[in-house]
Fold this sequence. Notes:
By secondary structure, the protein is of the alpha/beta class. The chain has four helices and 32 strands. Helix 3 runs antiparallel to helix 4 (386-417).
Amino acid sequence: MMKAKFLLAFTCLTFLFNCGGKPSNTTFHFKFIGNNCSLNGQSKYEVDVPCNKENVEFAINPSAGYQLKHYFNYDKGVVLENNVLTIPKMDRDYTILLNGIKEDVAAILHVHQPAAYTEFAFSYKASDEISVDWGDGTSDNLSSHIYEKEGAFNITIHGNLTDFSCTDKDSLTSVDLYSPALTKLPGVAFFGCSALTYFAMPETITTIANQVFLECKNLSAIYIPRNVNSIEEAAFNHCESLSSIIVSRLNPYFDSRDNCNAIIMSGSNILLYGTKNTIIPNTVVAINMLAFCGTNLETIDIPESVERIGIQAFHQCRYLFKVVMKNKMRKVQGSTAMFSDCPYLRIYVPAVLLSEYLGDENYDLSIAADDIRDILTKVKEGSISIDDALLEIKKDIIAIRRMIQVQQDKRIVNHSTHSSITQHKE
């Protein structure tokens, strides 16, 4: 009888945990509020949706003369694409506010001018004449403007842009591109925009050219639309704060499977770009050259499926202190300088493969066995000497010191810049 009661209580708790604190046979509430757009012909719409239902879709209609403003919720993976709002999993109540903007809006920029009488400028091509509302009460058809006072301003560009890039690298904080004539983000278009935190591109984009977002150090998240079929070299390198990447589930060329926060080439299963929060899926067979270059990655597991790591894949990951090789059957093929300029790094490998890794010039002296117990077992078996075992344990102590130093360095940076840095916890 006691056992039956326990099983009943356990089952009820399982239902609650699986459905965000509600019994699994209940619903969650969805509420839509639209501004210049509607759902089922209504600007306000509410409905109950079964708990844990996946890929819940709502068709949103912009009002006449309007288009829908970009919408992304990176934490929950909720996106608006092709005028359809998709919720990956109904695991809580949702209230979604969507806005329509004028059809002729090609771009909305947010800038922060640090002082009076400073200039902001951009570069563009267009199929017709543009007009620009500079956000300070003035408008014209120019591509540069001098602000008479410091502060934050919203810039709205009207027209039909065919090419766009930023020539001001310090004051641009966010970009929303809408022009349907845009099919390519040109090379180095936003290279070095150090204040840029948010970027949204139109669904018509097919190519993200080389170095587009290189050294956008504060860019935190990016959404890759369904039509993107080419992402070129160094497009997202040295994006230190990049923590979230979502690829459209309708994109046949790339994906971000299993909420991995990375861009994976769907056909070849090669990880193209990663972030500081990437978890590599066990379906990835290779890590591309420069994939994590310059990210604030701290620790990463290389799953059993990975066969090779490309040139400079983790170059200048200066907070990276722990890499764990999970494959116990074969060594992961390395490449030149794949872990170069990672001053705190410690690479943990299966003890049975330790000699193979130590003999590979692409790996350095940061190699260690993955378990001290394995080392002690080998001592007992007589396969390694006590001196060699002590040397390996000493390396582990050095690794711990490196890890502590990483956290101390990051606290210093956090204190001096007042920025939010996620700390890794073992």
